[in-house]
Automatic annotation (TrEMBL):
It comes from Desulfuromusa kysingii. The chain crosses the membrane at residues 7-31, 51-71, 83-101, 107-129, 136-158, 170-190, 224-244, 264-283, 290-306, 312-337, 349-372, 378-399. InterPro entries: MFS_4 (IPR010645), MFS_dom (IPR020846), MFS_trans_sf (IPR036259). This is Sugar phosphate permease. The keyword DNA-binding does not apply. Gene3D superfamilies: MFS general substrate transporter like domains. One of its GO terms (molecular function) is transmembrane transporter activity. Residues 11-404 form the Major facilitator superfamily (MFS) profile domain. The keyword Membrane applies. Keywords: Membrane, Transmembrane, Transmembrane helix. GO terms for cellular component: plasma membrane. Signal peptide: none annotated.
Length: 405
């Protein structure tokens, strides 16, 4: 292979960014933008909207359970490509669906593909980057999520205007085509480890960090992983409530037009572009514990403002706070698992804590949908999210302090 002017690890990050752009940014976060028009076209109730979100996360949860086994057989490169192909196929199917049960089945399978692609992509960071660069690398990868939100926030209203009641169908079909193209690119560019190209991981050569020496292979490693998993569950149970229902809340409770709501959602995407890099780098410097405490504090304020009913100004501030912190937790968690367990156990460790994350986001939208159906408002769901992340701040204090490298 021709020598590149930069380390191939950064090309892995670029491919990972595109992978997350498609498997999460488009397949998952465009869902909230498409929900009002799709719900109106198929006459979906609030609880059915919540069940669709839960179905997607149930598929993701299944993928979490099988990904370590799949990775052992197929390795990350093939697993990512297969996962993205499954996402593309099911999104194309959703564009043709006419009934709730069809959407539910297809979106469950979308979740399976998203999980396979996402977990396999994030595992690559432990192989391609040493500790001092993992937070930055993970932060750059989750950049793709924000790009997906921006794209959907601008694209969906435009297609709805041009194609009227069929706009949501055209949107799903377009997202399927983009995801299929990225699946081919991932198959071409991804490499499973730097050794296959005769390279070392990105970062200076140093012995294992104090964290790795202290926790890897010890009974404390299980406790740390469970703690990280519970925090990841709190994130999963709350961030997707906001991501799924905030646009619907803007349209149906605040009286915003779909175009204006789309612009708000695009601002979420714009602000989120910085979340992974800012907080990932911050956690590289201050430690994963401090990074998580700061992130959960910002998210708590965002959910409180969204549920306060104080008007558009409070909602705009909520959008800013949600966006600036939304991808910080995945970035920090990805780096933390590599720090605590080392490269060889990173895949199993990340899958373990992602199981908690997937469980949280599986129940979150369903509970929020039922609360909204009962109360006629999404404010109780947003306030409950603030309570959960507030508790997460206290729980994060129990994490062990990062040892000096």
């Amino acid at each position: 292979m021709k020598k590149l002017p930069f380390h191939y690890g950064w090309l892995i990050v670029f491919t990972g960014t595109l992978t997350l752009f498609s498997c999460l940014g488009l397949a998952r976060f465009a869902f909230g933008m498409l929900l009002p028009s799709m719900g109106a076209g198929l006459e979906l109730a609030y609880d059915q909207m919540g069940y669709l979100g839960t179905g997607n996360f149930s598929g993701y949860l299944f993928a979490v359970a099988i990904t370590p086994t799949v990775l052992n057989k197929l390795r990350p490169r093939t697993t990512i490509s297969v996962g993205l192909f499954l996402v593309a196929t099911t999104l194309a199917g959703m564009s043709q669906a006419n009934f709730f049960w069809q959407l539910l089945l297809l979106y469950v399978l979308t979740g399976v593909g998203s999980g396979l692609a996402n977990i396999s992509t994030m595992v690559l960071i432990a192989h391609w980057f040493r500790r001092e660069k993992r937070g930055l690398a993970a932060g750059l990868m989750v950049f793709g999520n924000g790009l997906g939100i921006i794209f959907s926030g601008l694209m969906v209203p435009l297609l709805n205007q041009n194609y009227a009641h069929n706009g949501w169908r055209v949107s799903w079909l377009l997202l399927a085509g983009i995801t299929f193209s990225i699946s081919l690119l991932a198959a071409f560019l991804v490499r499973n480890e730097p050794e296959s190209l005769g390279l070392d991981p990105v970062g200076s050569k140093t012995p294992f960090s104090g964290e790795e020496l202290r926790y890897s292979g010890s009974t404390k490693s299980s406790r740390v992983l469970i703690s990280l998993g519970l925090l990841y569950m709190a994130f999963g149970a709350t961030y997707m409530v906001y991501g799924t229902f905030v646009v619907t809340s803007m349209v149906e409770e605040y009286g915003f037009s779909e175009v204006v709501a789309g612009r708000f959602w695009s601002w979420v995407g714009f602000f989120s572009l910085f979340s992974g890099v800012v907080f990932g780098t911050l956690s590289d410097r201050l430690g994963r514990k401090s990074g998580l405490i700061i992130v959960f504090a910002v998210q708590t304020l965002a959910y409180l403002l969204a549920g306060s009913g104080l008007g558009a100004a409070a909602l705009l501030l909520s959008v800013f706070l949600y966006g600036i912190a939304v991808w910080a937790v995945p970035a920090i968690m990805t780096a933390a698992v590599g720090d605590y367990l080392g490269v060889t156990k990173a895949a199993a460790g990340f899958s373990f804590i992602t199981f908690f994350f997937a469980a949280g986001q599986t129940i979150g939208p369903a509970i929020a949908g039922m609360l909204a159906e009962h109360s006629g408002s999404f404010s109780p769901a947003f306030l409950l999210s603030a309570l959960i992340t507030g508790v997460a701040i206290l729980f994060a204090l129990s994490l062990p302090q990062p040892a000096e490298s």
